[in-house]
What we know:
Blueprint: E1 2-7, H1 13-24, E2 27-30, H2 31-41, H3 55-58, H4 61-65, H5 70-85, E3 89-92, H6 96-99, E4 106-112, H7 115-126, H8 130-152, E5 165-168, H9 174-188
Parallel strand pairs: 1-3, 1-4, 2-3, 4-5
Amino acid sequence: MIILVCGYSASGKSFVSKYLSKKLNYKVIYTSDVLNQFIINENKISTKTKMNKGWYERSNLMEIRKNNFSFDKKLDKYLISLIKEKENLIFDSSTLPYLLKKKKGVIRIWLKATYKVRAERMSLRNKISIKDALRILKKKDDYNRNYYKKLYGFTLGKDLSIFDFVLDTTNLTINEVFKECLSFVKNKL
């Protein structure tokens, strides 16, 4: 089984992926780390990835990606090849649920939360003010919606009908989010 965890920044994708990985004994692939590897050296990619807390916000990735779709196209092609070759994987990905919306053997999870809650989380994670986090989230969300629309023709977060499970994490503790996701996934296995 393949599990795809999706959502906007600071919705809990990476933490849920890590938790499910431990509970189900699945390998987790942090797609931001794979993207970072592609940028550094696209010929040397490892599936041993790490959670990059706030890496994207500190990188110059929006500028690098602005007029160059090659990084994302290569990343998604590589990730899809992993899905074809292996089982029992979890990805925290913005694109894979949309690109694989008809693929069987895939569980698609969307995590959502209000801007305010996501900004509070990002503020703690990145050690920045909530005001700065709100500004970054707005810019990043707008950018990603427009970028993926140009790249693949979908608007991130608009059509949630492709997801098997949509969870609003706004008023949930991290443990409640974990329990809800694990319960849903176990019912699908």
